[in-house]
Amino acid sequence: MKKINIGLIGWGNIGTGVIKLLAQNEELLTRKLGAKLVLKKVADINITTPRAVKIKKNLQTTNAREIINDPSISIVIELMGGYEPARTFVLEAMARGKQVVTANKALLATHGNEIFLAAQKMGVNIGFEASVGGTIPIIKTLKESLVANNINSIYGIMNGTANFILTKMTDEGKMFSVVLKEAQQLGFAEADPTFDIEGIDTAHKMAITMSLAYGAKVNLADIYREGISKISSEDVTFARELGYRIKLLAIAILKKNGIVESRIHPTMIPSGHLLANVNRNYNAFYFEGDASGPVFLYGQGAGMMPTASAVMSDVIDIAHNLITGVSDRVPPRAINESSMQKIKLLPMEEIETKYYFRFSAVDRPGILSKIAGILGENNISIATVIQKARQEESAVPVVMTTYKAKEKNVQKALKKIDKLDIVQDKTVLIRIEDELA
Q: Which domains does the chain have, with CATH numbers?
């Protein structure tokens, strides 16, 4: 029986999952592939710390180039994370004609244009299903299943940590800081949670997703991004009262002339929508193709075994190609890299959506008319108003939602409103998406 040798760079949580999956499902994988996958070598800077799985000493090394330079290894799995030396190792492996599988979203979001072009030039496969959505088959869906579609819109809950926090705040009424600490204790959030709660991780995934959906190069820095660290339990309560749930949502909408509207921010979604009911650490992606119509994908977006499952799906695909002698059957991003143009993004100030405002205002006669007047001057129409009971001269929350308005008009109006002597704190703004298909 044919054997296909694998080298693994990075023996962390996901690497451990891959080793475990190779061992526990060895018979299944061999039967489905018609060949035997052999783990030839595992590289990590630390091979002394005990892991949840054990491998023979002669399979372990601290030198990744023992894998890269080994002519008997056909597939290199990169799971070390980060930018360097991951970038160098991936490029060196491909230069030696090796097939590559990676889960490194930060690497691909930042250096993907270089890496995908190198893969195409060398005629090798690069699998990256695990880089977006964990076990959810986002990459294959966009590369193959929806390849005949113009993707009219993408709405995604792409970070399990942020979703866990917002779910607990909504369902249990807890403050952000309390839930964050709980998430850290449960292992859902890192000691430094910045990448998760400020939308950076989501932006990495969105850059990869959009490059596939629109066949274009995406500059990570061009994607508008806000995190969830400023979301209060008060806003969560008002959202529920208005019939919404708050999610950290990644949005891409195809506009006229190929321009794409792209943004990541806390978003109010109608409580009855599928996305509003994606809870805890789960992820979901809601695409709409011009031929397919709505497509909803849901599952675990992270974790040892779900991510290992996605890694192994790429390994099996590539192994089939090696067995049949086929290389680069589908381009890495479903389009020839030489045809990739820089994506055209709509400036954030030009986007139009609905808005939620929470003003902290001194409860005096005429405050509503003053605020409404400024909004009206900037072509912003009010849809609903909630004003809590009068409390002498203390500040009370005044909540308004709007009909569709332009972002630049909203920012201009709020800048003026926040200077009023009756407004005590900076206005809270949360965008609303209630026209999802």
A: 3-132+304-332 (3.40.50.720), 139-300 (3.30.360.10), 350-432 (3.30.70.260)
